[in-house]
Design goal:
This protein has 366 residues and is an alpha/beta fold. It has eleven helices and 13 strands.
Length: 366
């Protein structure tokens, strides 16, 4: 029987994390359970010396009061603290990765935790699934990512907030692009999936949208920008997802830290330079970057986060084990974690949004 649960937030931050924390905490306390949080993913266990008041903290009604509307996470997060491949320096100063999962298991046993509620994206939930297998603790996953790239759920919380902000930015850039007759290339996050770029680009009436799922031909993009001028539009808005790449080309990356996935970025600047060279038109690049991660979650994301958090606790009460809560309208349902681990949801090329973009005359680079 569940009596004491622990939760953590891993990977990149996303609007709605605090709402999930509040929903899990209140739902559990109302059932008479104890709730704790691990600080900064698993670092609260692996490097407790970094936290003056300890790396595992009690979550009470007072601790989660008034946090639903706040961006970020009160527990902190990291994308470098994978306990299965934890970065350490050897005696020669070289960085290596080691498996420290046994320490996680020992901490869970010491505290007497019955279940882990892991709030994260594909990477974090894959780690949590493996931790669950090794430790024997029941893991309930909550799908978090602005990228919307998790399988078996219609939506992840954080996505709507990211799209809403990106759309607002594109709206603002339309006016300066039109005033100066410029091509403005806007690079957005999304890693290897184009959901943010596609949704915000269509919503903001972009002229070109380049996403990872469709390798692009820069000549076709240039042609689209050039043919707008005779029609009285001497400017163009080009949305580029950070994982987009040219046909036969490579991903644009900005390096890789030990224990961290390669950091994507730079494709927007490359596209802007290529368009200037091919069209002779002035091109500028704007990188929205981490701006789309922060800030207040939209009402849609708040509601989804609260639903997910409450559903995670209901799942434990019902005896569910090693599952992820998932949006399957009109319900929040349960999906086995093993189906979610190491799976990525790409934009379907036969979907309605792609068809809508093409019907509107938006160039997708192909």
């Amino acid at each position: 029987m569940t009596k004491k649960i622990v939760l953590n937030t891993g990977g990149g931050d996303a609007p709605g994390l605090n709402a999930v924390i509040r929903a899990v905490t209140l739902s559990a306390i109302h059932r008479g359970w104890e709730v704790y949080g691990i600080l900064e993913g698993y670092r609260g266990i692996l490097t407790p010396e970094d936290f003056p008041n300890g790396g595992i903290v009690p979550l009470t009604i007072e601790a989660v009061r008034g946090i639903t509307h706040l961006g970020g996470t009160i527990l902190g997060t990291t994308n470098r603290g994978n306990p299965l491949k934890f970065p350490v320096q050897d005696e020669n100063g070289e960085w290596q990765t080691v498996d420290r999962s046994a320490e996680i298991t020992a901490a869970f046993q010491e505290y007497g935790f019955d279940a882990l509620v892991a709030i994260g994206g594909d990477g974090s939930l894959t780690i949590a699934h493996e931790i669950g297998k090794r430790s024997g603790i029941n893991v309930i996953g909550v799908p978090k990512t602005i990228d919307n790239d998790l399988e078996h759920t219609i939506a992840t919380f954080g996505f709507d907030s990211a799209v809403s902000f990106a759309t607002e930015c594109l709206d603002r850039l339309h006016t300066t692009a039109a005033s100066h007759n410029r091509i403005i290339v806007v690079e957005v996050m999304g890693r290897h999936a184009g959901w943010i770029g596609l949704y915000s680009g269509v919503a903001a009436t972009a002229d070109v949208i380049l996403i990872p799922e469709i390798p692009f031909d820069i000549e076709k993009v240039a042609h689209k920008c050039e043919k707008r001028a005779p029609n009285g539009a001497g400017f163009s808005i080009v949305v580029v997802a950070e994982g987009a790449k040219p046909i036969g080309g490579e991903l644009s990356t900005k390096g890789k830290a030990v224990g961290q996935a390669a950091q994507l970025g730079g494709v927007g600047e490359k596209v802007a330079k290529a368009l200037s060279a091919q069209t002779g038109l002035e091109s500028r690049c704007v990188v929205l970057g981490h701006l789309v991660r922060g800030g207040t979650p939209t009402a849609r994301d708040r509601l989804l986060s609260l639903r997910f958090g409450a559903a995670a606790v209901r799942a434990l009460e019902e005896g569910q084990s090693n599952i992820m809560v998932a949006l399957q309208p009109p319900r929040v349902d349960y999906v086995p974690l093993e189906k979610v681990a190491n799976a990525m949801k790409a934009v379907p090329l036969d979907g309605d949004i792609i068809a809508t973009a093409r019907d509107l005359g938006i160039c997708l680079g192909d």
